[in-house]
Write a structure and sequence with these properties.
137 residues, Arc Repressor Mutant, subunit A, globular, mainly alpha, 64% helix, 6 helices
Length: 137
């Protein structure tokens, strides 16, 4: 039997994510991006080393052909480049272009500000982030 508290928490998490995705829809359409391409763009942190294709596939929980398709869409839109991994020349990394950095920042702002979580006070957001972090450990 599933605990009602757990079911309520999972359902609330689903609804928050669903409403967040709905809120970012117009911004995605403005850049001709899908949820999948946005997720990939979001997961390329401009303050971290460029991720390899293998790392991106793991982050997105997809296989190599799917990632290649998503990466190609981002490349076609001028948001990322595929480059040789300086740490392993057999591997390729996805590098944000200047346009990709700008679009990513705009979309991250749209998704975070459009999320129902934006309505919570900062202390509640911190508490929720801590609780979700613990759940993910």
């Amino acid at each position: 039997m599933i605990a009602p508290e757990l079911a309520a928490a999972v359902l609330a998490t689903y609804h928050v994510w669903s409403r967040t995705v709905d809120a970012v829809g117009p911004a995605l359409a403005g850049h001709d991006l899908t949820e999948a391409t946005f997720q990939a763009l979001w997961l390329i942190d401009p303050d971290e080393p460029s991720p390899s294709m293998k790392v991106m596939a793991e982050r997105l929980h997809c296989n190599a052909p799917n990632l290649t398709f998503v990466a190609s869409q981002l490349i076609d839109r001028g948001l990322v480049d595929r480059a040789v991994d300086p740490a392993d020349r057999r591997s390729r990394v996805l590098v944000l272009t200047p346009k990709g950095r700008q679009v990513r920042a705009e979309l991250v702002e749209a998704v975070t500000c459009g999320s129902p979580l934006a309505k919570l006070p900062a202390e509640d957001q911190l508490q929720l982030a801590a609780l979700l972090g613990r759940a993910l450990e």
